[in-house]
Design goal:
By secondary structure, the chain is an alpha/beta fold. Helices cover about 30% and strands about 20% of the residues. The longest helix has 23 residues. Bound molecules: nicotinamide-adenine-dinucleotide and 3-phosphoglyceric acid. Belongs to the D-isomer specific 2-hydroxyacid dehydrogenase family.
Length: about 625
């Protein structure tokens, strides 16, 4: 492949003055990323006539000019922006939330506490809401996301379990889901222990019989806990706290959790065993796994057949992990001696539920998280997460988006901008009618590839490629989903280079394969449209177009020209633009061979008129050019 040289030629004073666009991208420039929401999917096929696809090109002898339309390419910071100085976001709270959390929310937005809404009323209200906060009682279904019509940006689950939120639909609609995963852990664990002990000693049954005027000391003889084996099913936050407390009560504790590290369990004297081993050796089984397709009805006739006769079961996880009819059968047969249940498949369960009415079953109405302390904690945790998300920050408790720690985020900030701009540029270089099927991103970095989290960058490249040519809004939540849906395959390669390890990334190269380009010089030796960028002093720069090295900061708009390398070119083009009062912000020329082909990259603050672009195209030495909007 021919090598090229770079000669930065003209840097007008405007680049050195501190206009907002020439500042290094900051964390705030990333904030809008999560604000955008998805909309109608359209094909990725490029069309000359798409209104968002603004570019002009003159190619070789034909020098046809495609008309520039007026709609803005970038949707970031558009009408969906939430800025407390403009409009306050509306936050719907559909279930009771602790006062401290409500206070935090009220300081940020308009809070509508409407409890016990029917699904229909929720769907009506949601269209005007930016955020929705729920507990386990509200079903956030696909219809809710559809009814939101793209307005809903975040769903906050004030608690752990997100089985009442349709995550797939949330992701498709670009709606972030956050939860409050830790504030109610102890409350749930304490409730599990309360149920374990009260079940073993028939506290609820004895209480009910005394209130009915009876004194039945022989009927309510219980069983002891000390020395008994407790199987903790799911060794996560709640499960491990239950295990700790049960050890304190003198119980032998075993656990089954396919994903929990065994050394964490071993550290507190808990053995990790298989599912069958756990349920067949335990005297008590306490459930602490999430409800997922894999755990749904995992306690069924088959598993009850394997349990030790007389086992006692506690469930403060989710009702759906037990086949409730099978549990009734196991209780009736005596295989299961007792059950203590805080959660049910249907909540509230039907009044005539055999399970609830069973005399050897102790029930509570989903009270696991219901302590004053936990509710205040959860309310604050979710309010902070929702406000953060509405401000556009990446949430630490995001359920359907990658969590990017704040320090990584601020380090990646300028690269995030570079990634999106490369995407935007590359797609504008594609000839109308071509369909983009695959993009390859090559990150060069001095760091170990494992230390480079590129999810955010990939999402921004996707955003840059898709948004200019479709009506889709892309954010971190739906970027991968949208790319897949549009048939765009994005592959990534990390190349270790000898550069400063201080910088997370040395360069980002974007290649679009199997497409024609309206600017032939952007096609590399390998036949792909290929552009490359670097961050210099915090500013994203375009450093390569096809086989040509250039160096132009990626701000404002860009004109790329291929011309015969000869004196006077810069002056000619500069004059044409100057006559139209178009300010040139940066210029760079790259060439492969002296006095042959050269590429001129010209950054312009204003959008040149069609007339001036036409004049540029008429300069005899210019063989092709393209006007690109960032
Ligand atoms: N009753 C309540 O009010 C209440 C309160 C808090 C939490 N919960 C429920 O308790 C459960 C646990 O909450 P958490 O905060 O500990 O969650 P967590 O995510 O910290 O822990 C869940 C654990 O379950 C494990 N797991 C997943 N699939 C499993 C399987 N097939 N078998 C065994 N283990 C499996 C996971 O690896 C994880 O370690 C959730 O269902 C949550 O909704 C209920
Ligand atoms: O998953 C949870 O956090 C608990 O089930 C608590 O649910 P709740 O907020 O409806 O009490």
């Amino acid at each position: 492949m021919a090598s090229s040289t770079t000669k930065p030629i003209f840097t007008p004073p405007s680049t050195t003055t501190s206009s907002s666009s020439s500042q290094p991208p900051t964390r705030s420039s990333l904030l809008s990323f999560l604000r955008n929401t998805a909309s109608t999917p359209i094909s990725l096929k490029l069309s000359h006539s798409h209104p968002s696809f603004r570019s002009l090109s003159i190619k070789n002898a034909t020098k046809t000019i495609e008309s520039a339309e007026t709609s803005p390419v970038s949707k970031v910071g558009g009408k969906d922006t939430i800025n407390s100085q403009e409009t306050k976001p509306t936050i719907l709270v559909s279930e009771k939330l602790g006062e401290a959390g409500l206070e935090l929310l009220r300081n940020f937005g308009d809070v509508d506490c409407s409890y016990d809404l029917s699904q229909e009323d929720l769907c009506k209200k949601i269209a005007s809401c930016d955020a929705l906060i729920v507990r386990s009682g509200t079903k956030v279904t696909r219809q809710v996301f559809e009814a939101a019509k793209g307005k809903l940006k975040v769903v906050g689950r004030a608690g752990v379990g997100i089985d009442n939120v349709d995550l797939q639909a949330a992701t498709e609609f670009g709606c972030l889901v956050v939860n409050a995963p830790s504030a109610n852990t102890v409350a749930a664990a304490e409730h599990g222990i309360a149920l374990l002990a009260s079940m073993a000693r028939n506290v609820a049954q004895a209480d009910a019989s005394m209130k009915a005027g009876q004194w039945q000391r022989n009927k309510h003889v219980g069983v002891s806990l000390v020395g008994k084996t407790l199987a903790v099913m799911g060794f996560g936050k709640v499960g491990s706290e239950v295990a700790r407390r049960a050890k304190g009560l003198g119980m032998e504790v075993i656990t089954h959790d396919p994903y929990a590290p065994a050394d964490r369990a071993r550290a507190i004297g808990v053995e990790v065993v298989s599912f069958d081993q756990a349920i067949s050796t335990a005297d008590f089984i306490s459930l602490h796994m999430p409800l997922t397709p894999a755990t749904k009805k995992v306690f069924n006739d088959d598993s009850f057949a394997k349990v030790k006769k007389g086992v006692r079961i506690i469930n403060v996880a989710r009702g759906g992990v037990i086949d409730e009819d099978a549990l009734v059968r196991a209780l009736d047969s005596g295989k299961v001696a007792q059950a203590a249940l805080d959660v049910f498949t249907e909540e509230p369960p039907p009044k005539d539920s055999k399970l609830v009415q069973h005399e050897r079953v102790t029930v509570t109405p989903h009270l696991g998280a219901s302590t004053k302390e936990a509710q205040e904690g959860v309310a604050i945790e979710i309010a902070e997460a929702v406000v953060g998300a509405l401000k556009g920050e990446l949430a630490a408790t995001a359920v359907n988006a990658p969590m990017v720690p704040a320090e990584i985020l601020s380090e990646l900030a300028p690269y995030v901008v570079l990634a999106e701009r490369l995407g935007r540029l590359a797609v504008q270089l594609v000839a109308g009618g071509s369909g983009i099927k695959s993009a390859k991103v090559v990150y060069k970095s001095a760091r170990d590839p494992d230390d480079l989290d590129t999810r955010l960058l990939r999402a921004m490249i996707t955003k840059g490629i898709i948004e200019p040519i479709s009506d889709s809004f892309i954010n971190l939540v739906n970027a991968d989903f949208t790319a897949k849906k549009k048939g765009l395959r994005i592959s990534e390669e990390r190349v270790v280079v000898d550069a400063s390890p201080e910088l997370p990334i040395f360069s980002i190269q974007l290649q679009l394969s199997t497409v024609d380009s309206k600017f032939g010089s952007a096609v590399s030796g390998g036949g792909d449209i290929s552009i490359k960028g670097e961050v210099k002093n915090g500013i994203p720069h375009l450093t390569r177009v096809g086989s040509f090295s250039v160096d132009v900061s990626l701000e404002g708009n860009l004109i790329l020209c291929r011309q015969v390398d000869q004196p006077g070119m810069i002056g000619q083009v500069g004059n044409i633009l100057g006559e139209q009062n178009v300010n040139v912000s940066f210029m760079s020329v790259g060439r492969t061979v002296r006095r042959r082909n050269a590429i001129m990259a010209i950054g312009v603050d204003e959008e040149p008129s069609l007339e001036s672009l036409k004049k540029i195209g008429e300069v005899p030495a210019i063989e092709e050019f393209v006007f690109l909007k960032l």
